[in-house]
Design a protein that fits this description.
By secondary structure, this protein is mostly helical. It has one domain. The protein is 91% helix and 0% strand. The longest helix has 57 residues.
């Protein structure tokens, strides 16, 4: 993400250099200089818009992934609790259900930590702390992966 912002900053610098070249050049009339300036600024605005759209789509994908992991683990835990209440008189299955529900609950915990890291990452990005933002972004990805691992582990333990 930081590389994209550096590239964007470089684009700003290049556009400002281009604008200063346009205005220093005596071969262009004032109207041509104005037209070229507008084109350079429109190009920069288009690049900024595309970068913003890309960032928003990545953030949306991350949020959907976190919501999906919470839904998977939470739904599995609730389904097992419902099943557990029906067969609680059979003592053999009780221990296996309890451990499986614990695995799904731990998966929900990792998903919630990922959501918190995503929030902190976004907040740091807004405040121009790019390197710290990347750290929290990577932590969020790691927590979502852990959530899926616990979901898979709970499924394997139950079956």
């Amino acid at each position: 993400m930081q590389a994209k912002y550096k590239k964007l900053k470089k684009n700003f610098e290049n556009c400002s250099l281009k604008l200063s070249e346009i205005y220093k050049n005596d071969n262009f009339s004032e109207q041509e200089k104005e037209m070229q300036s507008k084109l350079v600024l429109e190009l920069l605005a288009t690049k900024n818009s595309l970068l913003k759209t890309y960032e928003e789509s990545v953030i949306t994908l991350g949020q959907v992934t976190i919501k999906m992991s919470i839904l998977l683990n939470g739904g599995a835990a609730v389904a097992l609790m419902g099943l557990f209440s029906k067969i609680s008189d059979k003592d053999i299955f009780v221990n296996s259900f309890a451990h499986t529900i614990l695995d799904f609950s731990i998966g929900v915990m990792w998903s919630c930590l990922a959501a918190a890291c995503t929030y902190v990452s976004r907040k740091l990005l807004i405040e121009d702390h790019y390197s710290f933002s990347v750290v929290f972004n990577v932590a969020a990805i790691f927590f979502v992966i852990l959530s899926y691992i616990y979901f898979y582990y709970g499924i394997c333990k139950f079956s």
